Every structure is written in structure tokens, then in C-alpha cells.
Amino acid sequence: MIHLEKISRVYQIGNQSIHALDEVNLDIQSGEFVAVMGRSGSGKSTLLNMLGCMDRPDGGEYLLDDNHISNMDDDQLSAVRNRYMGFVFQSFHLLPRLTTLENVLLPRRYHTDGAQEPDYDRARELLSRVDLDDRMMHKPNELSGGQRQRVAIARALINNPRVLLADEPTGNLDSSTSDAIMDLLQELNRDGQTIVMVTHEPEIADYAQRQIIMRDGKIMDDHHV
């Protein structure tokens, strides 16, 4: 489903060129659960941004379901993100004035016809799936950290994404809450959801089926567990 061939991303800082991604080759199949690990500055977050069509490569080829992503303009990339990608972040990024249900529906507002009744039905179904049936009308400040991350996961799934991209999804959570979130991601993966997750915690990476280790913009190790 995902094919990267010699993908490079170079940042200029003064007179210095920083190779955030250095001719990375990577294939990810539908239904995989992949953890990307590495020290700060290894390129793992740049790789996730590249996969999520939030950045363009300076060289190489990115194919997503045979679509050539590398040459797309901003509008095309935005359409691909909305159609193919769901995002889960460390800091949740929920809008404080919206209810749980409204936060989950937020991506549907960007569609031409806006959120329709079937979207509300799906949002309620997703909130039930993440055990938040009784929190649909609560605001984010009325939820625990784990509950807020569950809202974020439900929001990421509202558009039926091909790929769920998670950037340190347990970074702001205690260990027991982290385990519960990872159990949920594993359950989603067992149901067929493709997941690519960035983490610096080996015990969190162990929930994935496949682990990729990055250093200095290169993939140093890629193995199944």
C-alpha cells in the first residue's frame, strides 16, 4: 500500500544541510502495525510527516495505493490526507469549546456537504467503540488524559482512513492508561486497520508487529516481532 523509494528530505540551517531523511526505502502492507523508533533527530517524525502527506520529499518517489504523492500540489495533498489518513498526536489537539461528539465530527466539517446524519451515527458508534458512550456531551477539560486520547483516536477514524498515523500516542499518559490505549490500537489493527506509530519507548513498540529503527535519517533495522 505504501512504497517509498530513495526518499530524501534536506533542511538548510544556515550553511549546513541536515539530511532528515537520507534515501529511505520502505514498503508497508495493508493491515500492518509498524512502530518507528529512534533518538531525537533520527528522522522518525520527518518520516511520519512524509507518510502523512504533511511534507514533500526533496528526492525519491512516494506511492500510496499507486498514487504518485511526490509531485502533488498542496490541494492534492490535502485531499489525500482527508481521504487516506487519520492522525493521533501526543497532545490530543482537541478543541476545548467542542463536546466529545463535536470533536470526533470535526474532520467531516471539511467535506463539501459538511457533517450529515450518517456521520453523527458513525461518530457515536466510534465513541462507543472506545468506551466513551457516557462522555459524548462532555468537554475535553472534563475528561482524563486517557479519555481525551480515546476521543482523538475516534476522531482519527471518522473518515475510514486507510492508514492511522500515531505520533507518540502515549507520551502524555501514565503506564496503565498507556497500556489501555495500546490495547485499543492492537484491537483496531486486528480488525484490519493499518497503523504506523512513532515512539521512543521499547515497551510501547512491542505492541506492534514490526519495528523500524532509525538513525541519522536512515533505516538501520527493520524486523518483525
Gist of the model:
This protein has helices spanning 44-51, 74-84, 100-105, 117-129, 145-157, 175-190, 202-205; strands at residues 2-13, 16-28, 33-37, 59-64, 67-68, 85-89, 163-167, 194-198, 210-215, 218-224.
Shape: globular
Strand content: 25-35%
Question: Which runs of at least 5 residues are low in confidence (pLDDT < 50)?
Answer: none
Please write the string of helix (H) and strand (E) elements: EEEHEEHEHHHEHEHEE
How far apart are the first and last residues' alpha carbons, in Å? 21 Å
The side-by-side strand order for the widest beta sheet comes to 6-7-8-3-9-10
The CATH topology is: Rossmann fold
The overall pLDDT average reads 93
Tally of DSSP β-strands: 10
The gyration radius over C-alpha positions equals: 18 Å
CATH superfamily: P-loop containing nucleotide triphosphate hydrolases
What structural category arises from helix and sheet content? alpha/beta
- What does the largest sheet look like? 6 strands, mixed
DSSP helical segment count: 7
Plain-language structure description:
- This protein is α/β, with parallel strands linked by helices and 225 residues long.
- The chain has one domain (2-224): P-loop containing nucleotide triphosphate hydrolases (Rossmann fold, 3-Layer(aba) Sandwich).
- Helix content is 32%, strand content 29%.
- The chain contains seven helices and ten strands.
- The chain has helices spanning 44-51, 74-84, 100-105, 117-129, 145-157, 175-190, 202-205; strands at residues 2-13, 16-28, 33-37, 59-64, 67-68, 85-89, 163-167, 194-198, 210-215, 218-224.
- The strands form two sheets. It has a six-stranded mixed sheet, with helices on both faces.
- A hairpin with a 2-residue loop joins strand 9 and strand 10.
- Helix 4 (117-129) packs across helix 5 (145-157) and helix 5 packs parallel to helix 6 (175-190).
- The longest helix is centred in the C-terminal third of the chain and has 16 residues, at 175-190.
- The radius of gyration is 18 Å and the shape is globular.
- The two termini are 21 Å apart.
- The model has no long low-confidence stretch (mean pLDDT 93).
